[in-house]
Amino acid sequence: MKILTTTPVAATTGSQQTPPRSGASALVETLVHLGVDKVFGYPGGAVLPIYDALYNEKRLHHILVRHEQAAVHAAEGYARSTGKPGVVVVTSGPGMSNTTTGLLDAMSDSIPIICISGQVAKPLIGTQAFQECDAIGIAKTVTKWQTQIQDVREVVQRTEEAYNRAVSGRPSPVLIDFPKDIQAQLIDSPIGVSLRKTPKDSTPSEYDISQAINLILEAKKPIIYGGGGLINSGNLACDTFAKLVSMTKAPCTLTLMGLGAFPGSHPQFIGMPGMHGTLEANLALHDSDLIVCVGARFDDRVTGDVETFAPNSKKIHIDIDPNSINRLVPVDVGLAGDCGDVLSKIVPILRAKINTLQDIQPWWAKIHRWQKVKSLNFETKENTIVPQALIRSIQNATAGEDPIIATDVGQHQMWAAQHFVFNKPGHWLTSGGAGTMGYGLPAAIGAQLAHPDKTVICVSGDASILMNIQELSTAVQHKTPVKIILSNNECMGMVRQWQEFNHGGRYSHSYTEALPDFVSVAKGFGWAAERISNPDELDTAVMRCLRHDGPYFLEVAVEKQENCFPMMPAGVPHNQILLREGEFYKDDST
Predict the structure, then answer these.
(1) What is residue 521's three-state secondary structure?
(2) Is 131 a catalytic site residue?
(3) Which residue of 68, 120, 175, 569 lies most exposed, with the fewest beta carbons within 10 A?
(4) Would you say residue 113 lies in a domain?
């Protein structure tokens, strides 16, 4: 391989002539050979050679967003719903810095993203040139790996390495910073790309596997607790997880990021755990004698007070990231490896010993008693739509369809997690670890582009939608029939709720007094749109929205003071749950 600094001359590779190409073209060609079919981005001066290479490239579909943060969220939606990495191209300076919120979001939720940022020409780096920034420095805390291409001969290898690093181990975002002069420089090289295999993740020892199986066989009050790592591992991992749950007959709970890894309609599923989880899921965690944690990280929103979390249980933790094991909660057996690989070792051995499992019917009798409390029940109102009823209406209208649901962050997010039933992985897109307002609409667009024939719904709130409302334009340009269903309570609902509970009802800046006319705004972008406020209109309006053959914006005025329950207040154990306003459940038997 050689760099061409004078008039380029085509070289011969074997019997085939290889025409010279730019570093930008080498990048694009490598992405194609890696199987990338969609790129989300926004052009600027420092990436114009890349955009020139994209101009006649029919194998890559470029999606022009309206903000670089949205490019990453759209790539996340694509990645989360397909299992393939999302690719982002942005310019230097503010283009790159605008991606950091999206990269943080992807890092927090283990989403594989390859972000390619333009950079000023190499001789200008460090001179405070126009639109220069320290991309590597900025990205260090929000990406798994970063590189700046120093030589055009590195393009293919660095792009391939970025891909492998994004998808291997714990999936995460990576950054390639690409100086403009190297993008434009010509190189004479073969067109083909020699792809390296992703290195195999570590697997636990036979001894650790046998220890885990013994704990499962001995448990009288087990609970199986799954997370987003299952979905990242793929459908086969989720299927194997379902076999484990079915075989053990144990109750199953799934984190916010794990919803869909096990069918939500299955009788062994007892709901989501944590701050806004079901009563039965939280009490079962607290009272269990064994927790089998698969692909989750014992997040603080699930554990609450770590010192009082599941005080009498033994714990098995399966996670692809060895650093996650014993980091927050000490465990008895840690199994580092891909969820699917580890489960595939456990399930056959356990099946052979199935007759030695403990009788857990008394455990289920206790859980059924908790379920009778019906912690997700809510009261409807005659003249106002309550937000829970809105989510139930969408659920009923899509029953049997398995739509893809994206949300923003706040009360509506928790109600969606509580009241939708997810039976398949990859159908629930939300921001978990970072809690990023503005995630929902671009993520929905990314998922819709990946699944053009599916119903894709963005459930948002009036505060969240304003964070990236400009992406209404992206949806129209790229003909994505996304449905936005806006739960409008005229405030930052979760902020208001915490101010009510923890700050004496002093609602400091949590209300928006100058909300736009959302219907007019949506129509101005080319969306069909309407607003409703009457409970009698709800079901027909939701159906009208979902059956429309293009993008549709349904604004629903909901009860402004509704709070999200059940709720496990910060700093209390799992057996103390606030069920409803003024109704605190404390189970002294656990």
Answers:
(1) helix
(2) yes
(3) 569
(4) yes
